[in-house]
Each structure stands twice: as C-alpha cells, then as structure tokens.
Amino acid sequence: MKLTDELFNDVIVYRISELGAMGPNGSLTILKKNGETFEFDYLSDKTPWEEIKRCFPGINGCRFNGPMIDEKRGEGEIVIGGFGKSTTVNPGWKHFYLGYGNHFVCKEEYYEKLEKTFKGFDNIDITFD
C-alpha cells in the first residue's frame, strides 16, 4: 500500500506498538471515521516510520515510551522505554496505555465513550482484538 496524505484523512483512532513490545511489534493500525482500517509495519521499507509521520500529522511529533506521566502501569510490568521522557501525544488526541509497549490513541471527542467501552476488558484483549 502506498502511503499518501489522503490515506490518513479522517483517522479517529490508532494503535501502535513500540519496538520490542509484547504484541504486534512495529505495528501501526489506524481506524478512519468511515470504518476503514489499515495496518502498517513501520519497520518495513514499504511503510517506513519517517514516511508515515510525513503523511499523518496526528502522529508526527508524538513520543511512545511507556505510559504517560498521569497513567499507571500494571504491577510487575516491564516498561519497554521507561527511561527519559514518557509518552506524549498531540493536542486533540487522548492516550490509553495498554501495557508492555502498546498504545491506543483516539481523537479527544471519542475518549469518554471508549473509556467506558474498555472498562471490562484486559489490556491484552484491547491490544489483540
């Protein structure tokens, strides 16, 4: 799939895994407002991280390094990055730390509803399902 600016129009949710994450390592999955989903391997030469950042302003400038400062991690959990600066997302987006290097980011207006939806699920279920 060729990366274009248009491909990232109307993204409302994305899930990303840090390098070394337990789960879909090097994976970026996006959900668009119209229900389309795409998955990219940002370690691949076909969909490199620098090109994704160029096409997707919602992710450009973000940092994924464990939980955000105000988020808790699970007891006994190993934080992949964990050193230095924590995860940051762009204004207008909200973050769910799924544990073990996995992140779920949504447009601010969907956060409250998703928070309620996720209440009964383990992070591992959100990461893989």
User: How are strands sequenced across the largest beta sheet?
Assistant: 3-2-1-5-4
Structural class: alpha+beta
Poorly predicted segments: none
Shape: globular
Q: In percent, how helical is the residue content? A: 10-25%
Q: Beta-strand level of the residues, as a percent range?
A: 15-25%
Major sheet, described briefly?
Answer: 5 strands, antiparallel
The arrangement of helices and strands along the chain is EEEHEEHH
Instruction: Estimate the mean pLDDT confidence.
Output: 84
Count of individual helical segments: 3
Number of strands: 5
Give the N-to-C terminal Cα separation: 23 Å
Task: Provide the fold topology.
Blueprint: E1 11-17, E2 27-32, E3 37-41, H1 49-55, E4 93-99, E5 102-107, H2 108-118, H3 123-128
Antiparallel strand pairs: 1-2, 1-5, 2-3, 4-5
3D structure, described in words:
This protein starts with 10 loop residues before the first strand and ends with a helix. By secondary structure, it is of the alpha+beta class. The protein has helices at residues 49-55, 108-118, 123-128, and strands at residues 11-17, 27-32, 37-41, 93-99, 102-107. Strands 3-2-1-5-4 form a 5-stranded antiparallel β-sheet. It has 3 helices and 5 strands; from the N terminus they run E-E-E-H-E-E-H-H. The model has no long low-confidence stretch (mean pLDDT 84).
